[in-house]
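Sample intake sheet
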Amino acid sequence: MSLRELCRWLEIPYRRDMDAGFCNLKTRQVEARCGLRPRVFDFPCRMLRVGSALRTVRPALWSERGRSRYRFCPKCFEDQHTPYLPVHWRFDPWRLCFKHRCMMEDACWKCHMPILLPEKMEQGGADGKGITFMSQCFHCSELLWRVAPIYVDQLAPLVLSPLQEVQLQNGCAFVSAIAHGYMTNLLGRAVRIAKELPLMERMQLLASGDSLSPNAIRQRELLEEEGWQDC
């Protein structure tokens, strides 16, 4: 069954950004047809709906060429019994895995290709014969979790600036605020995230662009180590 056929059967709009189609999904109908428990889609749908509605300088939901783009935690992928991509991995400010305290990776460690969805797993891999798990690169078949994680608590001094450390923590807080519907501002008051977000962006309190990408951090760490060796 092709993705278009599946979408037609589930009555889900087929589009390049499939996550966007979940914002207005008839969840009860899909749950019934798939034999899932009621309300199982409520949380991810709400996350996507709020994330897509936020008016931000840089979109909260990460995209590339009109398709959903995801980061991933290599340790989470390694631990998952059935590998999958949690919805919060798509949010651009989420750059740190709160559970494992490691940087979220943004591409395959071997071929450097990003994770873009939807993809046809049966046609994936270097030979086009398909891949078995979501934790494999769609382009070269490598297991994505084989990359050496960047543990932020073990980084050499000065690799992360104080502002970048704050941005990593705020990325987790940002997604948590979307999940709960509110956030605590600098005065300790509960406010709607849409009200506080413009201020956070103006103060550069959220990660943006490639300055906090894993490759940038690895290069900085290498330069820092070389600097200590030269002393």
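Comment: The beta strands are 63-64, 67-70, 96-97, 102-103, 115-117, 183-184, 190-191. The two ends are 62 Å apart (CA to CA).
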